[in-house]
Amino acid sequence: MTLTAAPRTPAAEPAEDDTADALTLGRRIRERRAQLGLTLEQLATAIDRAPSQLSAIENGKREPRLPILRALAAALDCTVDELLADEAPSERAALEISVERAQRGSVFRSLGIPAIRVSKATSDDTLKAILGLHQEVERLHRERAATPEEARRANTELRAEMRVRGNYFAELEAEAQRLLGAVGYSGGPVSQRTIAQVAEKLGFSLHYVTDLPHSTRSVIDRRNGRIYLGANLPSRDARAPILRALASLVCRHEEPRNYGDFLRQRVEANYLAGAVLLPEDATVELLSAAKRERQISMEDLRDAFAVSYEMAAHRFTNLATERLDLEVHFMKAHESGTLIKAYENDGVRFPSDALGNLEGATVCRNWTARTVFAQPDRFNPWYQYTDMAAGGTYWCTSRVEKAKEGEYSVSVGVPFDSVKWFRGRETSHRSTSDCPDERCCRRASDGLTRKWESAAWPEAATPTSLLAALPTGTFPGVDAHEVYEFLEANEVR
């Protein structure tokens, strides 16, 4: 396969705490070197390292391994513990560290402005002004995000856990196998009758009603062993809604104590539904064969198990890392450009707010998840390479699907080095993204701005969720009064 340009190499991004430690260590080494009257080149020679390596350490861009740290301590006539002390070596160094840390953080990056080089010539007043401005911007970001703060924090923590686990939950895979084994599943797409048998084995009957509470997808009556679902389910496929309802029983969910519990239960319910409808062994067998043939395709996975494209894409992320040794990312974006769901363990940098929250952020217009909406051919998948200014070249496959809220895209992507396993790698479609720099796709040209900024007065189609407070209650967003009245009206007497 021949591409028009070489791939960009992803750049590793250290955690902010690690960055702070590296900056403090670097400043302590530099200050100690200055006290001894050593040049950078002299100290580099003393520890048998290139001056560029030592410069990266002193600037906090590289954390030295223990042998180098010991060599530095010996050359600087101090102990390793002295070099690793938490406090900055001076008031000036503390100020420099604070500014450097601010410039490397998510708030500063979201502004899309270049960082300044902190040097001896940079005055204390300049550094204090930069730090003060950054702290004020950060305060405003936190103030704006204060209403859904708990949900955002819980969501960020859960996403981090999913990344560490490769989005693979062995305990839920085992539960799915147990449920299918109990009803004698032997292969092929899992039928709706099979799902009904699973419910029966768990002691529940299914009831399709026209008056299901508007704020719910399903309601379980644990007292009478009933599961209520809407009679007008999309395409009459009730398999996933039934399984999500049963997940509360299989996973032994209790009433969520906080928003973190609520989010985790939703993730587990969706995971279990996918693990039952696309059984692990059969799915891995299909994907492994496709990998050997270099023809992995979300469409093939969807068709083989008669599920939605979104579920197939989700399921692929569950198994890609643990069973196929592939790091991937997934995203669901609304036609407005708003990011709805996202997962990654391949280093791609999703758009986020200053606090690192993804959902609700605006996706770059040049990413596959956005360019797919402009394609007239909705029957075939859309493939695209994207060169990211934030690091690396990624390949994505994307499809547009419809929901009552409008159209949305579902995309699965991998770093350039992994594209060899996928169908669609030969695509010539390629774009470049310089986001979060606003000049990439969010800011109009200077000519258009000059012409229209004083004449345009648009009215925003403000979504109600933008102004609404975070839903409260035991199950956020559910009208408990309506649910209890529904159960009372439908109780078997």
From TrEMBL:
This is HTH cro/C1-type domain-containing protein. InterPro entries: Cro/C1-type_HTH (IPR001387), IrrE_HExxH (IPR010359), Lambda_DNA-bd_dom_sf (IPR010982), TransReg_Diox_bact_type (IPR050807). Transmembrane segments: none annotated. The keyword DNA-binding applies. Residues 1-20 are annotated as: Disordered. PANTHER family: HTH-TYPE TRANSCRIPTIONAL REGULATOR, METHYLPHOSPHONATE SYNTHASE. SUPFAM superfamilies: lambda repressor-like DNA-binding domains. Belongs to the short-chain fatty acyl-CoA assimilation regulator (ScfR) family. Signal peptide: none annotated. Residues 29-83 form the HTH cro/C1-type domain. It holds the Pfam family Peptidase_M78. Keywords: DNA-binding. It comes from Leucobacter iarius.
